[in-house]
Design brief:
Length: 128
């Protein structure tokens, strides 16, 4: 049985990546020692300013909905009870009457949507 070995195949076509020119001044800035330019973290700063929140509030878990990523909580502002939904990664270790701290969103529209949980998830059920 003979096996054919092909050596006349065309070479693989290599394409270079398209590179955009850094025309905007916020893309890179020189380092203090002048060696290498450091890219600025513009998006990270915008995200932190967009998610800049009000004061920390203590939330108490009211109930666990069927959605495995949500928790329904309540908190008190000036003696008035308010309720919110918090988007957690996994709600299996959250139980009713459990308390945790979370920064209150400053934007009124962000308060209407589920808040983002920023801390570590509890390792044990009901323990923070």
């Amino acid at each position: 049985m003979e096996v054919e070995i092909r050596t006349d195949l065309p070479a693989k076509i290599k394409r270079e990546r398209r590179r955009t020119t850094t025309t905007e001044p916020h893309e890179a800035k020189p380092s203090p020692n002048g060696a290498m330019p450091e890219p600025m973290k513009v998006q990270a700063e915008e995200e932190t300013s967009a998610s800049a929140s009000g004061p920390l509030v203590e939330l108490e878990v009211l109930r666990i909905p069927p959605n495995p990523r949500l928790v329904i909580c309540r908190y008190w502002v000036f003696g008035e009870e308010r309720r919110c939904m918090v988007r957690v990664g996994r709600n299996s270790n959250f139980v009713p009457r459990m308390k945790f701290w979370l920064p209150e969103p400053s934007d009124p529209m962000a308060q209407a949507r589920p808040w983002a949980y920023t801390g570590r998830l509890p390792k044990r059920r009901g323990r923070r």
